[in-house]
Amino acid sequence: MPLARISVPTQLPIERIHALADAVHEGLVETCGVPPKDRFQLISRYAPEMMLIDPTFPDVARTAEASIVEILFLQGRTVDQKKRLFRSIVARAVEAGFAGDDIMIALAENAPVDWSLGHGLAFGDHHEPLATTSVIA
Q1: Chain segment 63-94, per-residue pLDDT in tens
Q2: pLDDT (tens digit per residue) in 90-103
Q3: Are the C-beta atoms of 76 and 57 separated by less than 8 Å?
Q4: CA 60 – CA 5 distance, rounded (Å)
Q5: pTM above 0.85, yes or no
Q6: Which end of the chain is more exposed for a tag (fewer CB within 10 A), N or C?
Q7: Among 80, 105, 79, which Cα is nearest to 92's?
Q8: Count of domains for the chain
Q9: From CA 134, how far away is CA 137, in angstroms rounded?
Q10: Is the Cβ–Cβ distance between 74 and 114 less than 8 Å?
Q11: In a domain, 115, yes or no
């Protein structure tokens, strides 16, 4: 149940943005064992002057379509899984018309206790029944 934040320039058509979002999700499913229904993504569009992205660091050639994908997920993925995830996302993005250099990906991991999926319960506790009170008349 990763959370992906996808930051894109405003000029990208919505179809390309959705293709990038699909690439991120499909990559997570394929390489990291994320269940297909566990899709949590936030997409933000930015004016060019609000995306301050070095066009050439490190030895790449980014265009005005440069986008950033940030993925927060539970710790435990291997280095190999992370590298395959990067390649999978970018390969799918390229199929959707992006330049490979235009997709920057940053991963961050944390522990199950750092997530609450609802009801104010820590992840893992959400399977326990909520305490309910009943009134006896």
Answers
A1: 999 999 999 999 999 999 999 999 999 999 99
A2: 999 999 999 999 99
A3: no
A4: 22
A5: yes
A6: C
A7: 105
A8: 1
A9: 9
A10: no
A11: yes
